[in-house]
């Protein structure tokens, strides 16, 4: 009876509580079951005795024993054992021992086998003290029976065999019950741990689900057979699908282009992912159930786990805002380019007209040529910005070549007036020719930015020295100034967009923080490298390394 078990010393009762404490009503059911089995066995025996040997009823111990067993059975049924202390239950099996002793008194212990019922009951559900007491009670009854009835050696031997047999049965039942309790309590502990693990896993799944539902990215997880395993809220809202029937098409329709033809069902991202296809950044347009257009980027990721079947993750990014921003950038670039072209056209036109005047002095003629050339470069820059904003791709015919010395000399001609105005000396130590691989227009843009920075951040009386070295492999150009310099902590960040070094921020010279990044980008696009050395308050040296033209000819 589970409700009457005592917890063995090897397993602390506080770890796994006894059934009597957790479910007292089970105690009553167990008492009924065990006592009714014994009572029914005795009643069947009484009926057989009545038919085969009715003279036994003349013996008062036999009749008394039957009465005790039946009375105890009635008590077991009537008494609410769940309300009584556990020790009170032991009165029933001990009373049964006495009743069975009366049944077998003076009958050569022919009914002593009934002692097996209370002995097993006590061995299974009570402690060792109760079991020893029960065996002792049986032994006392056997001794009294032998003394009163003056049995012979054979009967005495029979009594000893009965007592030893009951003792063996009691010990075996006790050990088996103890082992069973230990296993059951171990299973309970394991079940408790599994339940805790299940709760933690369920909690983690809930948290992951909450995280996925909090994303503004649509996510659908599909099995290898195309079955929908999970959908997050964003996907459900975007496509208008039903969670209970996710395989059914939702209220949204996908298009290859904005207001174009709808995509065939088999070519939609969901169908392709269900087939196990792998794709990345597939662009589609979605007309949602609310009548709004969305630009989507669809990608798939294969999920492989050692403890779960392989599945596919369909990831849907809503890039409508990105597309709109790109269009806004294109419109802005087109507007700015158009508005800048008008004044530049006027500048270049008037410069050309002025250059046609034969009465111009050589100095003025040279200055007008610089103005016209600068305007033409500006027009080309604007055209490139406009083309880039529209995504125009220009195929290059091959590696271009240019003379770095001539490009820098032309750039110096444009910046000498600004240097003179700031009383900054510019020293040109470039070789006569420095042929490099690269686009002359882009290199001029880089050199203009380097010279502009050097002039802006060099104080009056300072010097800018430009030198170069030509080798079979490279052309190395040095732009050294005696300006304000850069703090060591800022050198690695001067190439970041919009970053301005501390010394620059403290100076009155304005700037955007884009120049150095643009210079490095141009140089690297031409296959070169850019190096920067600076000392705060002492000046900066910019070194540009470009592949030489002779190296290309050898290759």
TrEMBL record:
UniProt-listed Pfam families: HATPase_c, HisKA
Keyword Transmembrane helix carried by entry: yes
Annotated region described as Disordered, given as residue ranges: 1-24
Keywords, in A-Z order: Kinase, Membrane, Phosphoprotein, Transferase, Transmembrane, Transmembrane helix, Two-component regulatory system
GO MF term set: kinase activity
PANTHER family: HISTIDINE KINASE 1, TWO-COMPONENT HISTIDINE KINASE
Residue ranges constituting the PAS domain according to the UniProt record: 204-245
Ranges of residues in domain Histidine kinase: 335-550
Name under which the protein is recorded: histidine kinase
Lineage: Bacteria, Bacillati, Actinomycetota, Actinomycetes, Micrococcales
Compartments reported by the entry: Cell membrane
EC number annotated for this UniProt entry: 2.7.13.3
Catalytic activity field: ATP + protein L-histidine = ADP + protein N-phospho-L-histidine
Membrane-spanning segments: 31-52, 58-81, 88-107, 113-144, 156-177
Record carries keyword 4Fe-4S: no
Main location as per UniProt: membrane
């Amino acid at each position: 009876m589970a409700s009457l078990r005592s917890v063995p010393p090897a397993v602390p009762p506080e770890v796994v509580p006894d059934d009597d404490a957790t479910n007292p009503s089970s105690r009553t059911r167990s008492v009924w079951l065990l006592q009714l089995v014994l009572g029914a066995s005795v009643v069947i025996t009484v009926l057989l005795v009545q038919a085969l040997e009715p003279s036994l009823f003349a013996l008062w111990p036999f009749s008394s024993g039957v009465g005790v067993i039946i009375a105890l059975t009635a008590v077991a049924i009537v008494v609410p054992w769940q309300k009584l202390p556990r020790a009170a239950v032991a009165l029933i099996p001990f009373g049964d021992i006495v009743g069975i002793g009366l049944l077998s008194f003076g009958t050569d212990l022919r009914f002593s086998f009934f002692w097996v019922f209370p002995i097993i009951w006590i061995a299974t559900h009570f402690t060792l003290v109760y079991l020893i007491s029960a065996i002792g009670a049986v032994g006392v009854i056997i001794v009294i029976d032998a003394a009163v009835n003056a049995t012979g050696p054979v009967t005495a031997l029979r009594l000893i065999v009965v007592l030893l047999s009951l003792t063996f049965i009691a010990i075996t039942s006790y050990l088996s019950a103890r082992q069973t309790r230990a296993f059951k309590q171990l299973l309970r502990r394991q079940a408790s741990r599994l339940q805790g693990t299940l709760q933690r896993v369920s909690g983690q799944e809930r948290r992951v689900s909450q995280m996925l539902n909090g994303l503004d990215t649509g996510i659908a997880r599909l099995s290898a057979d195309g079955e929908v395993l999970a959908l997050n809220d964003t996907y459900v809202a975007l496509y208008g699908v039903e969670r209970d029937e996710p395989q059914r098409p939702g209220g949204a329709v996908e298009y290859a282009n904005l207001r174009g033809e709808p995509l065939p069902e088999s070519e939609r991202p969901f169908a392709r992912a269900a087939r196990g296809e792998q794709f990345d950044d597939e662009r589609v347009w979605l007309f949602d159930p609310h009548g709004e257009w969305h630009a989507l980027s669809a990608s798939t990721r294969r999920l492989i786990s050692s403890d779960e079947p392989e599945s596919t993750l369909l990831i849907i990014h809503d890039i409508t805002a990105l597309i709109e921003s790109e269009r806004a950038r294109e419109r802005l670039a087109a507007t700015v380019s158009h508005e800048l072209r008008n004044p530049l056209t006027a500048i270049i036109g008037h410069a050309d007209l002025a250059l046609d005047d034969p009465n111009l002095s050589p100095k003025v003629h040279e200055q007008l040529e610089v103005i016209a050339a600068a305007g033409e470069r500006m027009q080309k820059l604007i055209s490139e910005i406009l083309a880039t904003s529209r995504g125009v791709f220009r195929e290059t015919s091959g590696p271009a070549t240019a003379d770095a010395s001539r490009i820098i000399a032309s750039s110096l001609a444009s910046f000498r007036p600004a240097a003179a105005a700031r009383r900054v000396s510019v020293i040109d130590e470039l070789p006569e020719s420095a042929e490099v691989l690269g686009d002359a227009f882009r290199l001029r843009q880089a050199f203009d930015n380097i010279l502009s920075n050097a002039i802006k951040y060099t104080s009056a009386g300072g010097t800018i020295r430009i030198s170069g070295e030509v080798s079979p492999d490279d052309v190395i150009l040095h732009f050294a100034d005696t300006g304000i310099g850069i703090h060591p902590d800022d050198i690695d960040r001067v190439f970041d967009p919009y970053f301005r070094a501390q010394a620059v921020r403290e100076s009155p010279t304005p700037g955007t923080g884009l120049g150095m990044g643009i210079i490095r980008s141009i140089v690297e696009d031409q296959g070169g490298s850019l190096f920067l050395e600076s000392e705060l308050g002492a000046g900066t040296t910019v070194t540009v390394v470009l592949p030489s033209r002779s190296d290309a000819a050898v290759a």
